[in-house]
TrEMBL record:
One of its GO terms (biological process) is proteolysis. Keywords: Hydrolase, Protease, Serine protease. The keyword Protein transport does not apply. SUPFAM superfamilies: alpha/beta-Hydrolases, Peptidase/esterase 'gauge' domain. The keyword Hydrolase applies. It holds the Pfam family Peptidase_S9. The lineage of its organism: Bacteria, Pseudomonadati, Pseudomonadota, Gammaproteobacteria, Alteromonadales. GO terms for cellular component: cytosol. This is Prolyl oligopeptidase. InterPro entries: AB_hydrolase_fold (IPR029058), Pept_S9A_N (IPR023302), Peptidase_S9_cat (IPR001375), Peptidase_S9A (IPR002470), Prolyl_oligopep/macrocyclase (IPR051167). Residues 47-442 form the Peptidase S9A N-terminal domain. One of its GO terms (molecular function) is oligopeptidase activity.
Length: 716
């Protein structure tokens, strides 16, 4: 690491380790001000981490003004904003819905419902081109009534009565939510119903009068990651303070949450204890109130639900169950008889449901009344299979049109009706209603083209990474471009947490980039989930450099093909992808001419002390473990800025209300670049949460700013 040995190191280091008092901060600031420009700070001052601190927001507002004045003065900004607003507010969007209890539920936003309207209709009505909706709750009206900037974050509904739900409302888009009991049939909050104050809460219904809750009970009930680790049971009419303690993890866990599994005509009350981000223990809470019983399954696993008595598990590690002669691989989908385990606490008759090859993985599991539905990624192409179980598993491929990415957008165990969304880079979304019991497929909704794709082609290539691994990537371009290295190109990637990036339709990208002659590259680098758990785990902790090497390899490959050149190549990524952008900025500044760094992690020596950061130690490693810290020192963007370096322009995009990735990451990086005179743009949305936009209008504005920045750097 380029740890610069400046005079202020003692104070700065002490502040980093133990925190600073106001007098200590003032002493550090005065010392910094007395030093020459290139000898000011080892670390950016900690007051930038004070989310809504007066000094920090003054700095943010100053940066915002400079960037907004510059980008909004460009005539393209107004063009991009107008196009963006037309797309996000379009009346002919697909009203994606969840089908349950005889109704299709939809959350709708447009220019009239900025914060959104919760509504529902019948299945028959939903299949019509223009359904008649029953409005349930206007978030705009609620916000106006209560003088709050409410953002709707979803609901948890009672399985036996879908009218009764716990709604999650976020102030400005934060992960923390206030939960209130709501009755769809009465279109009102339940009088004297359940209310849980703002926190990162998890709830599960036991029955109409009882819920299990994991929330912020007091200052000592949260983990180091900021999530709850104590679960209590609450009866209707009880105060939260009177809730009964039923389960407890530890402060070093990521978090502990209740959930339920639908098993025939009953719900099993369960607990998941996330020991790390990727390792969990699962427990059953017997109805008689006796002690929780742990399931004898591996820690790297996901419970997908119960189908015809079989508990279905998605393995993220190799596993051989006790008394079983068979070993299953990481990436396998397996099942066993749940009733036998509930009665005997032993696993009987383990079955293999699905085994992937090197270039395939399970992308989604859905359970209906009579079928198990698997969405598979096969070389980053989606296929859907319908499975059944009768002593052993059988399957058939669903005969969907072969066109891009697919996902099951709605399925539940009370019906065999599912909704499947299909899209590609150039084909707009189409929604299919599928009855998996008789394999009847009907396209019921689609959106019109948002941009002219008549001259667009999509290609898939492979780049050879530094260690020889083949890294697939997509190129979306005008078919008649000249391969002379001058095409403005945007390369996007994520590379973490087993998140898969698939071809998808984006009107904003198409209208404001592809139609302008831009090329788009989607890189399926390691760290993601495109090829299963092993593809993700190849880049964990101190092995993470392979992820960065993959990103570099794709950039070099498209330059070698003369699709573009470093002068015309930009990159974009958010959250973990924001860390990727920061590393690309410091490791290979010669390879790009513009970097869009969204809601990023950038201070990798302190990330675990900021908001939810401690939960990601399983992904990045711990700065408190010497060998892992040594690696983090080498890659941490904030700590690897060369004061005399020749860097591309970088645009930071973050949100004050992001309570997942701290806005201090972007603030501190911008501060350091400002000290050294390096070029950057900065936009921090005061609301918006981790998406950096709390509503569709803000999304249109943010993307208009980003495409204006990219146009200035890669086209002009």
């Amino acid at each position: 690491m380029k740890l610069l040995k400046f005079t202020s190191i003692a104070i700065a280091s002490a502040c980093l380790i133990a925190g600073c008092s106001n007098s200590e901060k003032e002493q550090q600031n005065k010392l910094e001000e007395s030093l020459p420009m290139t000898e000011k700070v080892v670390e950016a001052p900690l007051w930038l981490e004070e989310v809504e601190g007066e000094q920090a927001l003054a700095k943010v507002n100053g940066w915002n003004k400079v960037t907004l004045d510059k980008l909004m003065a460009d005539k393209r900004y107004a063009q991009f904003l107008e196009a963006g607003l037309e797309i996000v507010n379009a009346k002919d969007k697909i009203p994606y819905g969840t089908y349950k209890g005889g109704f299709v539920y939809n959350f709708w936003q447009d220019e009239n419902q900025v914060r959104g309207m919760l509504r529902r209709t019948t299945l028959d009505e939903y299949s019509k081109p223009q359904p008649k909706w029953q409005d349930l709750l206007s978030i705009d009206a609620l916000s106006a009534l209560e003088e709050k900037n409410w953002v709707y974050k979803g609901s948890e509904c009672l399985e036996s009565n879908y009218d009764r739900c716990l709604l999650s409302l976020s102030d400005g888009g934060k992960d923390s939510v206030e939960m209130r009991e709501w009755d769809h049939s009465k279109q009102d909050f339940v009088e004297n119903g359940f209310v849980i104050p703002e926190a990162k809460t998890g709830v599960s219904w036991k029955d109409i009068n009882n819920i299990n809750i994991a929330t912020n009970w007091d200052d000592d009930s949260l983990t180091e990651s900021g999530y709850p680790f104590i679960i209590k049971s609450l009866q209707r009419g009880q105060q939260l303070t009177d809730a009964k303690h039923i389960f407890e993890g530890t402060k070093t866990d990521v978090g502990v949450w209740p959930f339920s599994i639908k098993f025939g005509d009953r719900n099993l009350n369960m607990v998941v204890r996330a020991v790390t981000f990727f390792e969990s223990e699962y427990f059953w809470l017997p109805d008689d109130g006796s002690q929780a019983i742990q399931l004898p399954i591996p820690q790297k696993v996901s419970i997908e639900g119960v189908f015809k008595g079989q508990l279905v598990l998605s393995l993220k590690q190799q596993w051989s169950a006790l008394n079983s002669k068979e070993t299953f691989d990481s990436g396998d989908l397996v099942s066993f008889d749940l009733e036998h385990w509930l009665q005997k606490q032993e696993i009987k008759d383990l079955h293999l449901v699905y085994h992937p090859n090197e270039r395939s993985t399970v992308d989604g599991v859905s359970i209906t009344a009579n079928k198990l539905v698997l969405t598979l990624l096969e070389n980053v192409v989606s296929n859907i299979y319908v499975y059944d179980f009768n002593k052993k598993w059988s399957q058939q491929k669903l005969a969907m049109p072969e066109n891009g990415s697919m996902s099951v957008s709605s399925a539940n165990q009370d019906s065999d009706i599912i909704f499947i969304n299909q899209e590609s880079f150039v084909a707009p979304d189409t929604l299919f209603k599928v009855d998996v019991s008789n394999v009847k497929i009907a396209a019921i909704k689609s959106i019109p083209a948002r941009f002219d794709a008549s001259n667009i082609v999509v290609e898939q290539f492979q780049a050879s990474s530094k260690d020889g691994e083949k890294i697939p990537y997509f190129v979306v371009r005008q078919k008649d471009i000249i391969f002379d290295g001058t095409n403005p190109t945007l390369q996007y990637a994520y590379g973490g947490f087993q998140v898969s990036l698939k071809p998808s339709y984006s009107g904003l990208l198409g209208k404001n980039w592809l139609e302008q002659g831009g090329v788009y590259v989607l890189a399926n680098i390691r760290g993601g989930g495109e090829f299963g758990p092993n593809w993700h785990q190849a880049g964990l902790k101190t092995k993470r450099q392979v992820i960065f090497d993959d990103m570099i390899a794709v950039g070099e490959d498209i330059i070698a093909k003369k699709i573009t050149s470093a002068k015309h190549l930009g990159i974009m990524g958010g959250s973990n992808g924001g860390l990727l952008m920061g590393v690309m900025y410091t490791q290979r500044p010669d390879l790009w001419n513009a970097v869009v760094c969204q809601v990023p992690l950038l201070d990798m020596l302190r990330y675990h002390k900021l908001l939810a950061g401690a939960s990601w130690v399983g992904e990045y490693g711990s700065p408190d473990i010497p060998n892992e810290r040594a690696f983090l020192e080498k890659i941490s963007p904030l700590h690897n800025i060369d004061p005399q370096g020749d860097y591309p322009s970088i645009m930071f995009v973050t949100s004050t209300k992001d309570d997942r990735v701290h806005p201090g990451h972007a603030r501190k990086m911008a501060y350091m670049l400002e000290q050294y005179g390096h070029d950057f743009e900065y936009y921090e949305n005061i609301d918006g949460g981790h998406s950096a936009s709390a509503n569709l209008q803000e999304k249109a504005k943010r993307t208009a700013l980003e495409y204006t920045f990219l146009s200035q750097k890669l086209i002009d």
